[in-house]
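forwarding from the other thread:

> can someone predict this with adenosine-5'-triphosphate?

sure thing
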Amino acid sequence: MAATTPLLQVRDLAVRYSNGDLALHHVSFEIKSPSFMAIIGPNGSGKSTLVKTSLGLIKPSRGTIKVMGYDSQKKSGKIRKLVRYVPQRDRIDLAIPMKVKDIVLMGRLLKKLPPRFATSKDIAIAKDALQQVNMEELWERPFPELSGGQRQRVLVARALASEGSILVLDEPLAGTDVESQNLIVEALGRYHKENDVSIIMVTHDLNPIHTLVEDVLLLKNTVIGLGEPCSIMDPELIKKVYGPTARIVEHSGHRYCMTHDSGIDRHD
Ligand SMILES: Nc1ncnc2c1ncn2[C@@H]1O[C@H](COP(=O)(O)OP(=O)(O)OP(=O)(O)O)[C@@H](O)[C@H]1O
Ligand SMILES: [Mg+2]
């Protein structure tokens, strides 16, 4: 049987910003497809840079990155057709009184050719996506009126409602409480299982997702670790990245990581 095309194939990648900052260097790895993968690492470790480079938004200073076999530089148009991207900071203008439904439908309409009208199928899919994150009752609510966590849920629903075989989410759990985190993580896990969709999720905290993700990439401007969550939840690896106070605890057969980022270690 022919080997399937990898989700990500990265060869000797380096990214330097124009101010001289070397965000990534000597990055080489491969992730099979389909996968639910997490990219973790502390602030400034190059997570967002890696994601943006894979989408062709940033040019590598060295090496290559391929998404489903498509080179990020030569085939970025193809990649953007496959990918639904939720950036770390969305540029939705909160001064414009868009409703929740407009935001979610936008995910579907932007991939259509003009004139862009929502069909009854688009509306049904958008409502279903909102239901996945328990937000269907806010369909008519103005988006700027929502709390930060509710907005994150709507943005995840927008990604679920749009089309493409890869979902890329940069810190979708930022600013959300535990209930919102669980809703988002469960919706993504379910979606990955039920559809042939790969998920690439950047996150500070592996704990809420480590039972669902299949591959974890641990970054600190280069690859520190890659493997299944248990192999990355390793005290030596975690200390290398998060410092000497980081540790791993085992509970009910699962490993949890305690770092200053997760804040858990302040209580012991
Ligand atoms: N537009 C930019 N211009 C110059 N340097 C940048 C730019 N964006 C990021 N950097 C630098 O590149 C490095 C990696 O940044 P990046 O945003 O990829 O990290 P991150 O892991 O996503 O961090 P965070 O967890 O804070 O989101 C940092 O040192 C950062 O200062
Ligand atoms: Mg980032």
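The first strand starts at residue 8 and ends at 16. thats all i got for now
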